[in-house]
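Entry for the shared binder. Reason: the reviewer on the internal report wants the predicted structure included alongside the sequence.
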Amino acid sequence: MAVLRLEGISKHFGAIHALNDVSLSLEAGEVIGLMGDNGAGKSTLVKIIAGNFQPTHGKISIRDKQMTFHRPVDARDNGVEIVYQDLALCNNLTAAVNVFLGRELTRSFGPLKILDYAGMNAAAANLFRELKSETRPKDMVRDMSGGQRQAIAIARTRLSSASIVLMDEPTAAISVRQVAEVLNLIRELKRQGVAVILISHRMPDVFAVADRIVVLRRGNKVADKPVAGSSPEEVTGLITGAIEAA
């Protein structure tokens, strides 16, 4: 059974058709590389799955149950988490506190509630261990590499035991070593049975971790095929329009 199924998803912003009749399915533990040029509709599609936008037409199903997401919390409550390109981290806070932003653990002392830093540090350490990341809970985010910051953002998705993680350009503007770290995080999510949709312009990264490639061009799906049956040259042709469809 697919953990996510999109059927005939379209999104119109007035006269602009950002998406046209896009369908796809995603299995547990599967990684889809979502590719396309700027303006192809990738971010719009992911924001629809994450509950930021509602589709103009089409259906979203989670485990064969049709859903209507009015806001992001609706998607999160159904196991969908998104890691945005800017990560939304606070540089002046520790890794653990960033993992729990908006979902802080507290302890009660009579009528008073205080933040449970020890509990958050211990829980974050377990999450980083599960992800096989060397990120340390008490370290300040401002001192961290791009790969460590991604680990924090991904650990945040594990708090809710998300079954679907959407990632927007996680390897953009980081070093080669950090890229390897992020790709290993994606492989670990896959090993744990989490389904991942990866938006990326970096062809080698997509071919390194994805099971399938979906290509959008001008709001239309022009390819949906196994990575093993494609090539960077074919995907480039699909993105640019040199190849109509595959």
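Summary line for the report: Residues 4-91+145-240 form a domain with the Rossmann fold fold (CATH 3.40.50.300).
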